[in-house]
Structure formats: C-alpha cells, structure tokens
Amino acid sequence: MTTFTAIRGDETPLIEVDAAKRLSKIDPMTYGGFTEHMGRCIYGGIYDPGNPLSDSNGFRKDVVDALRELDVPVIRYPGGNFCATYHWQDGIGPRDKRPSRPELAWLGTETNQFGTDEFMAWLSVLSEGLPDGKRVEPYMCLNMGTGTLDEALAWVEYCNGTRDTYYANLRRANGHPEPYRVKYWALGNEVWGPWQIEQMTAEDYAKKAFQWTKALRLLDPDIVLILCGQDGTASWDHTVLQACVPVVDMHSIHVYTAAGTSHIKNVTAPLAAERAIRITASLIELARIERNVPVTKPPTKICFDEWNVWDPERAPGDKGAEETYTLSDALAVAVWLNVFVRQSRYIGMANIAQTVNVISPLMTTKDGIVKQSTWWPLLLFSKYMRGWTVATHVRAGAYGGETQPVWLQGTLEDGAPWLDVSASVDEQGYVSLAVVNISETEDFDAEVKGAVGKDISVYTVNASQVTATNTEGKQEVSLAESTWDGEATYKFPKHSFTILRWKS
C-alpha cells in the first residue's frame, strides 16, 4: 500500500520505503495472460502452422520464448466474448472432422483447428524448463450464453476426469491419457453486457451461476470457480455477490482504460481501477458478513481477468483490435501494475488482455515479433515486483485537473501524484521501487528514503516524447539499465517509468 501527501511550491518530493513492513503477499497470478479466438491472437499469433518460425505443433517459437521471459503463470482461454457461442466439442478430435462455425462475438468464422487439446499442448510447451513441476496454469471460461450445464460438466470431465467415464475416455481416445487438471473455471464472461449473446439480468445470472457451481463441485470438488462480475463499481456486482459469495472462490471484474490524445488523462485513468478494487473488496466483505460465510472459508479474492489500455475506436474489436501503443500507453500500463501491487491484499489473479496481437504488448509478423512500448513495464514488473507489497509513503506534487472517467477526479482528494509509486520485497530481501513520473514536461528530483547501498540497480523506460511507438523496424521506446549510488536525490525523468532495486 502507498500513502500520499500532496506538497506545494518548491518542496523536494520524498519517497519513503519501509522494507520491514510487509503488508500483503503479491500473488504470482497477478501477471497472468489471456488468449481469445479474436483477430490474430490464436491464428497467426500463438498458432501459425507452416510458418518457418513455428514448431512441429504449429506453435510460434518466438512467441513462446517471449512469454517464457515474462514468466506468465496462468492463461485464460478461450474468451472473452467468444466463449458465449463456443462449443468445446467442435475443437477436439481429428482436425479434418472439425466443423467451421459462424463466430458471433467478432463476426468471423471459427475453423476450430485450435481447441482444448491444442491449448493444453501449447501450455505444456510454455511450461518446459520450469522448476519443481511448476507449469503455466490453464484458466477456462465456460459458455453461459448458448451453452448448457451438461456441456460445462462434460468439459470439466474431459479435462479432469480420472474414472472410466465417457468424456474422460474421449480425452484418452484423443491421445491424452492423463487428466489436464484444470483448476480455474470462469462462470461465463460479461453476461451483463448488451453485446453479449444471452445477456442476463443480475438476478437471472446469479440464480444460474449458483446452480452451476453446485453441479460442477459435485463432479470435481477441487476446482476454483470464478463469478462473473462487471467493473466492481456496479449494482450488478453487489447483486451477484450477495447471491453467490458462499459458493464461489473469486469474483471477476473487467476494466479497460484509454483517453485518446490526452496523455495525463491516459496515465491517470488506471486509478479508477484502484477505486474499483477497493469497492469490490468492500462488496465481497459485506456479502460474506450478510451471508454468514464461515471464517474457515478462504477469502474471496478479486480476479481482474481483463485489463489493459484499449481504445475501441482506435482499434475496433471486429477488425482485430490491433493497437499501436505509445509511450503514454506504456506509462498507463505501469500505473495499472502499480495499482495491482498496492492492492495485492485483494488480488487473486489478473490477466492482461490479450497475450499476443490483440491489444497486446507482443505483435507477430511473418518474420518475427515486435515488442511494443507496453512490453517493457510488463516485463519489469513480472521480473522484479514479486514477494510482498511493503509500506511506502509519497510526498509530491499532484495533478488536480479533469480525468477519464470523469468521476475519478472527485475521488482523488489531493489529486493524482505526479510520482505514482509502489514497492515490494522478495524472498531474497531485494526491494523494488516502481515509480511512474506521469508529467509530460517536468523531471522530479526526489529523496528516496530507505534505499540502501552504493550500487542500486536502475531500470528506466522512456522515449523522447509520449507519442513514441515501437513498430516493425522502429523501436522508439526502450529499456535502459544503469546504477545509482544512493546519494542525495534521484532524478525521475519526465514521462518515464523507473524501477530502483537494492538489497535490504
């Protein structure tokens, strides 16, 4: 958690880190991914048979190598909106027997050449070389649109069944004798939305979700079931939590941010997600109290399983949602990740949407990959912001102008700090201080209290202007590594993201 005091005039900014005060564990699942049958995420992204950059399974090796660098712990599949008309049995068995179907979420055609078994095989490739049996976990999203409970039960049986039963035997017949042990299952996706096939009221969804959880747990009592929330600030969240908090493990919320050409609105917008997390946590606590949930039942965590910077006008979903991200967007992603670290007490999982090509930090071409501006904060957080959130206090100037969403401005009593900060300490005692200077025009010399040593590692993401981008053949946003002697103040450059790292 980071507290903040606004300063005025010529006072020197101060960032104070107390590594001894470990506040809450940062769940490794915070750095999860998401793959949907949308645009070029699957076909041409992770699965590109015939391309010389692909392996014998058709999996892009350069994408696999990049995601291993991120140490992605979990990947959500197959949607997203796509799952509301997805019937998983279309995507198993011999490929030449699989039907092509009209795809209604993004108005395309789904060939079903990539399905459950291919997804699990891809995760196995991603997991190669991980220690002690660790793997990239699958997180499946059930079809609560055109799907049925029978179909959902069959999918869980296909993935996890160990007995001599039909769908477990079907998996074995398809060449996979061992169960996949899929632990995480979402009870639908955004079923509150008018764009959704089989949109439901909160009351109707809650009743359906409650009944599904009962049946799914009878089949496999070890699965983790995730409720479909809205954005954490809606009456929908209150209603479905009141009905279902006794029987679910996590509550899903989705937020995307973007603010067109306004840099300052763009980089402060993720603070709305911080407010959403706190509101959701309160709704969860209220529901657990009012429903008399036993104290022995583990805390109901937030699953922030879709988040990112996305401007649908700039990158329409039905046209593949291929964003070209700027330095401003990279700084917004860094603020997003600061939010998750600051609020780690409540986060059980978070999944950037999406993993490749579709509103993604990673883009493929026929000849290779492009690491967009947003790649760099994601990489630095996934490498260094591990362990525990530690107590941090910031004294700095603040932005007090208009925000997007508009309501955010009214919740920021002292404004949005020019220096957006989180800090962590890992198992080895290394402290990582993440600082986003959101100002487009001003460097800030700040005192960093608590920094130890004469050889502090410094990682900085920046460019000459906030509109800088990384595209094929052009890399304007980059990562610079240096050291700082810990003396005097540290200058955080304008429009930059910096991690300072030292041994406590």
From TrEMBL:
What this protein catalyses is:
Hydrolysis of terminal non-reducing alpha-L-arabinofuranoside residues in alpha-L-arabinosides
Q: Which Gene3D superfamilies match?
A: Glycosidases, Golgi alpha-mannosidase II
Pathway connected to this protein: Glycan metabolism; L-arabinan degradation
Domain Alpha-L-arabinofuranosidase C-terminal residue range list: 305-496
Q: Output one GO MF annotation.
A: alpha-L-arabinofuranosidase activity
Keywords of this entry? Carbohydrate metabolism, Glycosidase, Hydrolase
What EC number(s) is this enzyme filed under? 3.2.1.55
* An annotated GO BP: arabinan catabolic process
Residues spanning the signal sequence: none
Name the job this protein performs. Answer: Alpha-L-arabinofuranosidase involved in the degradation of arabinoxylan, a major component of plant hemicellulose. Acts only on small linear 1,5-alpha-linked L-arabinofuranosyl oligosaccharides.
PANTHER family, from UniProt? Answer: ALPHA-L-ARABINOFURANOSIDASE C, ALPHA-L-ARABINOFURANOSIDASE C-RELATED
State the similarity comment.
Belongs to the glycosyl hydrolase 51 family.
Quote the protein name from its UniProt record: non-reducing end alpha-L-arabinofuranosidase
Q: What is the organism of origin for this protein?
A: Xylaria multiplex
